[in-house]
Design a protein that fits this description.
The complex is a heterodimer of chains A (348) and B (297).
Chain A lengths: L2 H6 L24 H6 E11 L5 E6 L2 E3 L3 E5 L6 H8 L7 E6 L2 E3 L3 H4 L3 E4 L11 H10 L9 H11 L15 H12 L6 E5 L7 H16 L3 E6 L2 H4 L5 E6 L2 E7 H7 L3 E6 L4 H10 L3 E6 L2 E5 L5 H10 L4 E7 L3 H9 L8
Parallel strand pairs in A: 4-9, 4-10, 7-8, 8-9
Antiparallel strand pairs in A: 1-2, 1-3, 1-5, 5-6, 10-11, 12-14, 12-15, 13-14
Helix pairs in contact in A: 5-6, 6-7
Chain B lengths: L2 H6 L3 H6 L9 H15 L1 H23 L13 H4 L5 H10 L3 H20 L1 H7 L4 H35 L4 E2 L5 E2 L1 H18 L1 H13 L3 H18 L30 H28 L5
Helix pairs in contact in B: 3-9, 4-6, 4-9, 6-9, 6-10, 7-9, 7-11, 7-12, 9-10, 9-11, 11-12, 11-13
The complex binds adenosine-5'-diphosphate and magnesium ion.
Organism (chain B): Pengzhenrongella frigida
GO molecular function (chain B): ABC-type transporter activity
Keywords (chain B): Membrane, Transmembrane, Transmembrane helix
Chain lengths: 348, 297
């Protein structure tokens, strides 16, 4: 898949760093020119405390580079939807600021939102109208949409999500998956520079989830920035170039997925012919690998900065039989547990 | 060809297809038409209109069946005059619908307008389109008012048809006893219907305000109906005579002016002025609430 590699090289390498409130206050609140063009979404100290007293979002600093697929992850109740509502101008931040495509929100809503497609906390449509009629309703309310192309655009959007056959069926007769698809179709009614998709895979079966991932990849390849949230890491992780992990209203970590994944300490497992375990252990130690442990015919070691190819080459060069070599990096899920001390699906 | 393909090739076409942020001409009309289709296309609203239209039908039927009985020519308001001239069925039916059924209609329509969209979640998608909140509120007000006008019209037209069929239409005897030609009479009754419609604008503004306060359309509806009823009750207390002229419902029956030889336009315009004041106050409240409200449904 070329999507991640080619595109992320053109955006600033966002090194892994703790985000939000741990940054020195006001350190980079100044909006510099490169950020405006390079970031599709940017927030500074974005905070929402509901009238109930609930601190739903706690000073987060999102950085979504243009052209990226940004996976916005976090357990249920961690503040993803509230953040997205603030980005779209639905909810007013208690403090902090947000820019969408370089324009401040919510003041810039009229200019920016026509270029943004959104799915927020599940689809919502008029139950007694069909899919196409619901899209027509949304398009009619868009003052900047061309009415002459409305029908064609809605048909294309329906086609794209595979709903053409059910276009006239009342929404209330849609299955959960069909509803979710119609929500995606609404987000695709016009060409968009940015898509904000809140849990787009909710309610979809594995096949539907795959289709959504494919759609995201397609859109991203065409240059659309995608901010996609999920409480299920595995459903979207594969398509993301960037990840941000929320926990209890805070953005715990964000950055390129590559960088986040590499942060974890990789372990190598080497299997040799039985009598060669001792010699192989010496080779590994010789390569500078730490914590070399023998377990029957297998050896475990921390990989460190050594490339797996170097390990296999060294073993073969030493005249030993390499039966198996496996590199295991801690999954992002394990990283998440490490960061938050809680499991991924634990709601607060 | 999908949008993505179009954008990918980076041609001039792609630039054209990039969403522009400039409003298209006629956008207002397009949204109003869409809103009207939504309101009038809804089964429940159609049933509501049909129910209101049934009031003059039932009333006409009852009066027709009992017209030879001892009770003929009796009843409140203009009911007694209906058997003499079917035109008065319009006035009698409007009087019957004013205290409760029309406020209920307004409550349902305004409750649906904002709170209904909020509770179904469609409000967040409208605002994300984006529709400016001010524009949306204005369009909702226009559509609700149109629906209320349609309700009054439905009552009036059915009453006219039923009245003509059962009792016939003749020259109209005014309150003072003067008789005017039927055509003039029809005009005056149309004036009654118009005045009744405009008299309801204040309650529409109140209803829209309640609708911005909650995500429960039934709550907004109930509050609106209660305001109308409480206003009518207060209007009956002589102790509160000082505030009567400002009450929402106080001038509702002033349409009787149209049935005098000399229509006192001063009376009618003071009724309209009171409605305008209610519209101004509750319209502003609804607006200031709606443009700042968190949409978290
Ligand atoms: N309108 C609201 N009023 C009060 N609390 C809310 C409201 N909406 C969300 N919350 C609370 O804010 C927190 C974050 O919610 P949300 O943003 O929906 O999380 P997520 O989308 O990550 O599951 C939750 O604890 C939720 O209960
Ligand atoms: Mg959510």
């Amino acid at each position: 898949m070329t999507a991640s590699g080619t595109r992320s090289s053109s955006v600033p390498r966002d090194r892994l760093r703790p985000a939000g409130s741990t940054e020195p206050a006001g350190a980079d609140v100044e909006l510099d020119a490169s950020d405006v063009t390079a970031l599709a979404v940017r927030t500074e100290g974005l905070t929402k405390r509901f009238r109930s007293g609930q601190l739903a979002v706690d000073g987060i600093g999102l950085r979504v580079p243009r052209g990226s697929v940004y996976g916005f992850l976090g357990p249920n109740g961690s503040g993803k939807t509230t953040t997205i509502r603030m980005l779209l101008g639905l909810v007013r931040p208690t403090s902090g600021v947000a820019w969408l495509l370089g324009e401040p929100m919510p003041d810039g809503a009229g200019h920016v939102l026509p270029r943004v497609g959104a799915l927020v906390e599940g689809p919502a449509f008029h139950p007694y109208l069909g899919g196409r009629a619901n899209l027509a309703r949304l398009d009619a309310s868009d003052a900047t949409a061309d009415p002459r192309t409305a029908r064609r655009r809605s048909d294309e959007a329906l086609e794209r999500v595979g709903l053409t056959a059910a276009a006239s069926k009342p929404y209330r007769q849609y299955s959960l998956g069909m509803k979710q698809r119609l929500g995606l179709a609404a987000a695709l009614l016009r060409p968009r520079e940015l898509l904000v998709l809140d849990e787009p895979t909710n309610g979809l079966d594995p096949q539907g989830t795959r289709e959504v991932r494919l759609l995201i990849r397609e859109l991203a390849d065409a240059g659309t920035t995608v901010l996609v949230s999920s409480h299920l890491l595995t459903e979207i992780e594969q398509v993301c170039t960037h990840l941000g992990i929320m926990g209890r209203g805070k953005l715990l970590v964000q950055g390129e997925r590559q960088v986040l994944t590499e942060r974890g300490v990789a372990r190598v497992t080497v299997t040799t012919a039985g009598e060669q375990v001792g010699a192989a252990a010496e080779v590994l130690t010789g390569l500078g690998l730490a914590e070399v442990l023998a377990d029957g015919v297998t050896l475990h070691a921390l990989l460190g900065a050594t490339a797996p190819e170097e390990v296999s080459a060294a073993i073969v060069n030493a005249g030993l039989d390499l039966v198996g070599l496996q590199v295991r990096r801690p999954s992002l899920e394990e990283l998440f547990v490490e960061l938050t001390g809680e499991g991924f699906d634990v709601a607060r | 060809m999908s949008h993505a393909d179009v954008l990918a090739d980076g041609s001039a076409d792609a630039a054209e297809l990039r969403p522009s942020s400039t409003p298209v001409r006629g956008a207002w009309g397009r949204l109003v038409r869409s809103e009207l289709r939504l309101v009038f296309g809804r089964r429940r609203n159609q049933a509501l209109l049909a129910g209101l239209a049934a009031v003059p039908l039932l009333l006409g039927l009852v009066l027709f069946v009992t017209r030879d009985s001892a009770l003929a020519g009796q009843g409140p308001g203009f009911v007694g005059r209906v058997t003499g001239n079917g035109l008065f069925l319009v006035v009698a039916a409007l009087i019957m619908c004013l205290p409760f059924l029309l406020p209920l209609t307004i409550g349902i329509a305004t409750g649906e307008a904002i709170a209904g969209e909020a509770s179904s979640g469609t409000l967040r998608y409208l605002l994300a389109v984006p529709v400016s909140r001010t524009r949306l509120l204005a369009v909702k007000a226009v559509a609700t008012m149109t629906f209320v006008a349609a309700a009054v019209l439905a009552i009036g037209l059915v009453a006219l048809a039923v009245g003509a069929a059962f009792f016939g239409l003749t020259d109209v005897t005014l309150l003072s006893g003067t008789t005017i030609p039927l055509a003039d009479g029809v005009l005056r009754v149309a004036g009654v219907a118009a005045y009744v419609t405009l008299s309801l604008t204040g309650l529409v503004a109140v209803g829209l305000f309640f609708s911005t306060l909650t995500e429960v359309p039934v709550g907004a509806m109930a509050a609106t109906v209660i305001v109308a009823i409480v206003s009518a009750v207060l209007d009956t207390l002589p102790q509160l005579a000082a505030i009567h002229p400002a009450l929402l419902t106080h001038h509702w029956l002033d349409f009787a002016e149209f049935l005098r030889v000399e229509v006192d336009w001063g009376v009618l315009s003071s009724g309209m002025a009171v409605q305008a004041a209610w519209v101004a106050i509750f319209g502003s409240l609804a607006w200031s609430r709606f443009v700042t409200a968190d949409v978290s449904s």
